[in-house]
What does this fold into?
Amino acid sequence: MRRLAILRSPLALGALIMLALVLVVAILAPLLWGAAAVETDTSNINAAPSAQHPIGTDAVGRDLLLRTLVATQLTVVLALGATAIALVLGVILGAAPLLLGRAGGRLVIALVNIAVAFPGILLALFLATVLGVGEWSTMWAIGIAGAPSFGRFCQTLIAGILDRDYIAAARIAGLGRMRLLTRHVLPNIAEPLIVNATIAAGGSLLAFAGLSFLGLGVQAPAYDWGRLMLEGLSRIYLNPLAALAPGIAVVIAGLAFNLTGEALAKVYSVSAMPGGMLGIRRRAPQRRRQPQVAPEPAQDAADAVLDVRGLRVELPDGAAPVRGVDLKVHVQDAVGIVGESGSGKSLTALAIAQLLEEPLRVHADAIRFAGTDLAAAPRTAQDLAQRRALLGTAMAMVFQDPMTSFNPTMRMGVQLAEVSRFHGGMSWRQALQRAAQRLGAVSITDPERRIRQYPHEFSGGMRQRAMIAMGVMAAPRLVIADEPTTALDVTVQKQVLELLARVRRENGAALLLISHDVAVVRQVCDRIVVMYAGRIVEEIRADRLADDAQHPYTRALIAAVPDMRTDRARPLTTIPGRPVAPGSVPIGCAFAARCPAATARCTQEDPVLAEVAPQQRVACWNPIVTPTGGLPAATASTADPEDTDDEAQRGVVAERSAVR
It folds into this structure.
């Protein structure tokens, strides 16, 4: 039904009719009038237009109208052939960074950029001269000349796709480069490629006509529209239609290709049901793949499903957005990580889930998950397979933006079913049934119909619930939720949080919830970890957060969250200054420049994360040791949001003086 929408556009309908007429003429004209178009009549040479010959005859008495109609086939075939050559070569060139790696990809891209700098028609003329005169060599010349433009275009499209979360997940799952290209990349760039291919077909048709007109393309006795224009040029003043008729045919065919491509781009979609691109079903393998079995988890003495020690994430320039993180999550525990944007929350979660790639580097003393140290490199292929099985079944990741985490060209059921197919060895039918069951379990109505829909047909809240359903396709021991309620309204936010709590309760899974919203984390979690500038500055039980938090940054975060008691007549509380950039972390406490309680020691020594109370750790030289249930007046700033940064910094200095 969606594809029928093209018929509602008069322009698109007209383009389809034009293209259909061109293709019908290309197929039928040689069959109906092929013999008549080559018949000569020496008694009727160079005749003017008449009822018998509507656009006249040529120098040997052949009917020019029939020759124009019959020439449609060769013209269209050569144009489509050149377009196909340009498209295939362009995709190969554009995919070079993915297929060849960084070094080889850079070399190919440099060569493509040099080739793009040359005008395409000049490159085609050069190649046509080198390859030789004739229709087939000219077809290759035009195709090769168009490949650099396609290569640059494909390289840009592919670069945007490779940053998506589902690509990172596919790589971690061990998908090869070619499989990654055909399964996840090419379907997602199909629509713009189709538009450009149809436009290129019209351009190739014009290029062919031009080269044939110059005598480099089709040679006698064969003929296309360009050859007919060349032959009619000598009699342009005696019979203009001899040259104008094939030229008009070139314009009509070019417009038909271009307009049809633009129209189809609005409704075109690639089916990614089982079988690959375009919904082509492949024969099931004779031998059924055995399910991958994760190693039996070994419980440690502390009953921790996750134990992270000394986690550090480094950039190529040596900056560390995550530095020295120690974190432990017990069985069925719920731990929240809070902090401002840029504090290292998401990078910590991605590093734990083994989803970070070059150029980022992950170092850790230990990342023990379910008894396996993920920080240690796998020694054998079997170890690598067991680790993938462990991460694929025992750890679930709920990303911040499910629209970039789901492949937009694959149906939702297929994407969920891949978990059971890859890790459980189920058939497609069984895996799709389980996908529908999991969607129903996360309160998505009519799951049997929903598994046949695409991600864009789901609302934001439904996509987030579907992401959670994907995580529980197996039996996860740990669910990592990275900002799962961002950009959702309050009602949907509440539903997602309740769903996470239910998944934790029903599946017995531990939860690691990442958010910048302290109120959200307090509602769901047992313990709260506060991060600033890539390290943990405080860890405390959620029920003691409001009263017993001791780090000034934690207090500032609490004060920045409005509640029903907030005075609406006053500006909202803010934290003065800006967060520290990973590449410019100062000596000492990173929060010192924004902290009103900072002393000289804070700017010289980095505080150690130490236990200050049962189940509470703080990294601060001047903790707030006398809790009041609220934020001390010197800790938060209520400056007008429009104040300049300089004014805010001056306020910090004044507050420091008052505290000292």
About this structure: Residues 22-41+54-270 form a domain with the MetI-like fold fold (CATH 1.10.3720.10).
